Amino acid sequence: DAGVTQSPTHLIKTRGQQVTLRCSPKSGHDTVSWYQQALGQGPQFIFQYYEEEERQRGNFPDRFSGHQFPNYSSELNVNALLLGDSALYLCASSRLVPGQGASIIYFGEGSWLTVV
Amino acid sequence: AQSVTQLGSHVSVSEGALVLLRCNYSSSVPPYLFWYVQYPNQGLQLLLKYTTGATLVKGINGFEAEFKKSETSFHLTKPSAHMSDAAEYFCAVSGQGTALIFGKGTTLSVSS
Fold it and tell me: Which residue among A39, A48, B24, B82 sits deepest, i.e. has the most Cβ atoms within 10 Å of its Cβ?
């Protein structure tokens, strides 16, 4: 059973460009969340998708957008890249259990984005 | 609103010594609490979690944590450190099914 898979693992972009990161959740999971982890910092929540809709959003600008597909996979898009967007982007998946909240949350290995 | 404070950005212990990593939280709703470990250039691996019930939670690799509501704490311990425990440790809090709010992390170094 594959866990959470993310692609690409590493990429370099130029300021002002756009980037798309991809995530496939663990089998049986229906909820996908994205986090940004800057060097030496803890992960920060970007947004969460459930049933193809953005369910919750952290304190990130509109340049950060996402999508969830019917097969529960997800994309994170960042427009007009800034040097400060350089970070490890982590995808996490879980299964929402009615009345019990989220199942165990699993993280992928992340996508390292460098903006030059 | 929820927040997590991890006391000590860096903890150093000798192999075989007790490991104690401190975490205090703030939450306006009954919290779910987590400890994750991150090895260099890798993603996050769940060590243990507290949702409801027993306040002493046992996790993988010999780690455990105790939820103390009166102290708003969820400290992580391991009786005897191993070299392989050297990593970054993150405490996190969430409400039911919502986003994880992480602390800034504690780097654990283990010397022989």
Answer: A48
For the record, the structure tokens of A33 come out as 């969340």
- Compare all CA atoms of chain A with the CA of B1 and give the residue at the minimum distance: A58
pLDDT in tens, A5-40: 999 999 999 999 999 999 999 999 999 999 999 998
Q: Among candidates B19, B104, A6, which has minimal Cα distance to B11?
A: B19
Closest by CA to B90, choosing from A42, A45, A34, is A42
* Residue among B94, B95, B102 whose CB faces A43 most closely: B102
Residue B28 confidence (pLDDT): 81
Contact B64, B78 (CB under 8 A): yes
Residue type, A28: G
End-to-end CA distance of chain B: 41
**Pairing of β A10-13 and β A111-115:** parallel
B-chain CB neighbours of A101 within 8 Å are: 32, 51, 95-97
User: Which chain A positions have a beta carbon within 8 Å of B102's beta carbon?
Assistant: 35, 42-44
Which residue, A9, A5, A2, A24, is CA-closest to A68?
A: A24
